[in-house]
Amino acid sequence: MIYEVRTYTVKPRSMAEVEKRFGEKYEQRKKYSELTAFWKVEVGPLNTFMHVWGYKDLAERATIRAAAVKDGAWPPPISEFLVSQKSDIMNQTPFSPELKPSNDGPWFEWREYTHNPGQLPIMMKNWEVALSTRTKFGPITALWYTELGGLNKWIHVWPYKSLDQRNEIRNKAHDTGAWPPSARAKTDGRPIESLSMQENKFMTAASFSPIK
């Protein structure tokens, strides 16, 4: 399974109209494949939204997108508002939950780590060992690494009922001494991944997003 994350920045004061038009057009698009998530950035790069689509592979992505465009079911009529667009193809880690419709939000924290080349196997091992500690306190929505687009990216998305809950859960996990994964790796005597950058943003979901 792969996930395409399409990140769009739109003109100031246009988000409400963009969301409306996207949702209306999605009613036609979803007969080809259903949306995984639609998130709007509330804290971070403003006037930005992300729409996520799951596909079996790149061939299925190409087939579905071509059919939707040919039939006029896609794209939504929002080009007049667009400032920038980018697309990343994500692989799901073996220990990430399958993305299914849920109501674990309404807040989602997107954490994006850029690791140095060659560090992915170390990241994978450290997270596999430590993740069960963290999920005792709250679920994870997605755990991905990039295949196409911005390379050497490690993405983890966490749902919260509020930003206060986010702080409470993170404090409890840190108090165990086994989170974050680098702490557990240090205790176990395993290598710690080398990172060059860390970013995060807080998002809310659109009303038509299956994950919200």
Describe the fold and architecture.
With 212 residues, the chain is an alpha+beta fold. The chain has one domain: 2-Layer Sandwich (Alpha-Beta Plaits). It has helices spanning 15-29, 58-70, 120-134, 163-175, 181-188; strands spanning 2-10, 35-43, 48-55, 82-92, 107-115, 142-148, 153-160, 195-205. Strands 1-3-2-8-5-7-6-4 form an eight-stranded antiparallel β-barrel. A hairpin with a 4-residue loop joins strand 2 (35-43) and strand 3. Helix 3 (120-134) crosses helix 5. It is globular, with a radius of gyration of 18 Å. The mean pLDDT is 97.
| Major sheet | 8 strands, antiparallel, barrel
Distance between the termini: 21 Å
Please indicate the percent range of residues in DSSP E strands (runs of 2 or more).
25-35%
Overall tally of structural domains: 1
Rg from Cα: 18 Å
Q: Tell me, what's the shape?
A: globular
